């Protein structure tokens, strides 16, 4: 895996790890960017890891482009054979699947969809080979997801399903984007899941909604007290199906300021996961039960 370094103007260095997303590429990017952050070098303004790449913004008056490039290439060599382990967080996200709001939104924009006679959930279940919506929801919520990057709009996480590639859920985006998507919609496009942090335009298929605020500049939830953005690259997410009654109760708790999420620290070992993803996931999620 040979990394490609490209400068963007005087202040940016973009590093492409691979042309396709994979957990190996993601881990390599995370390892190098975490190593850079730990080095605490003067002149580094922003470190932005992504799915299979990362970008650094720097001040060329403090650290030269040549010095930064040499530093990153040194980290690449240093970490080439290092064990791919990560201390991170397991976050349980409640989801009201097949909810009335995303279904109503999908109906309003049906002429922009591949299957105007279906719903997003029914379409996704059918093209991924599931017998129906319930079986699809069980697959969607039955495995963990890696947060591979956060962005596009503030607080929006992109998540990569932690299963064998042939089992990954894949759906195309809408043929033409919607001009509306409910806030906190759990969506999916390509192989990536997401949660819309705010209401707005979108093109991902819509599967449900979560009552959990994931971006709040006022930081009113206890789990957002350290950052207005919940997710970080490297977080592991588990979706938990909830009923309409549980969703309404959670919304009341959000309004009262008493809502909380189940978040706990975990360690993740990529080699052990790749050896047997299903067994590793059972252990990972079972530990959280």
TrEMBL record:
Q: Which PANTHER family match?
A: 5-OXOPROLINASE SUBUNIT B (PTHR34698:SF2)
Entry-linked InterPro entries: CT_C_D, Cyclophilin-like_dom_sf, PxpB
Q: What is this protein called?
A: Allophanate hydrolase subunit 1
**Pfam families in alphabetical order:** CT_C_D (PF02682)
Gene Ontology MF term list: ATP binding; hydrolase activity
* Superkingdom to which the source organism belongs: Bacteria
Q: Identify the species of origin.
A: Paralysiella testudinis
Residues in Carboxyltransferase domain copies: 3-225
Alphabetically sorted, this entry's keywords are:
ATP-binding, Hydrolase, Nucleotide-binding
């Amino acid at each position: 895996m040979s990394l490609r370094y490209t400068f963007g103007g005087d202040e940016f260095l973009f590093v492409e790890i691979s042309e396709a997303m994979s957990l190996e590429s993601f881990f390599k990017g995370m390892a190098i960017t975490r190593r850079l952050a730990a080095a605490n070098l003067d002149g580094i303004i922003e470190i932005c890891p992504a799915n299979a790449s990362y970008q650094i913004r720097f001040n060329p008056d403090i650290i030269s482009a040549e010095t930064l490039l040499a530093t990153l290439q040194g980290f690449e060599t240093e970490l080439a054979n290092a064990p791919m382990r990560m201390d991170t967080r397991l976050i349980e996200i409640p989801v009201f699947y097949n909810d009335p709001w995303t279904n109503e939104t999908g109906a309003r924009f049906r002429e922009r969809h591949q299957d105007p006679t279906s719903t997003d959930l029914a379409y996704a279940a059918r093209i991924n080979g599931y017998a129906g919506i319930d079986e699809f929801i069980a697959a969607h919520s039955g495995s963990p997801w890696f947060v591979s990057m956060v962005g596009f709009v503030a607080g929006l996480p992109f998540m990569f399903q932690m299963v064998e590639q042939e089992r990954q859920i894949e759906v195309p985006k809408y043929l033409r984007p919607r001009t509306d998507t409910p806030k906190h919609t759990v969506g999916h496009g390509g192989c990536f899941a997401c949660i819309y942090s705010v209401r707005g335009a979108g093109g991902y298929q819509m599967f449900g909604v979560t009552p959990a605020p994931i971006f709040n500049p006022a930081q009113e939830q206890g789990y957002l007290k350290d950052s207005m953005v919940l997710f970080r690259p490297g977080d592991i997410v588990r979706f938990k199906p909830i009923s309409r009654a549980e969703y309404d109760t959670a919304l009341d708790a959000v309004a009262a300021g008493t809502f909380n999420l189940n978040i706990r620290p975990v360690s993740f070992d990529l080699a052990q996961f790749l050896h047997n993803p299903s067994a590793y996931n059972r252990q990972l999620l079972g530990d959280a039960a």
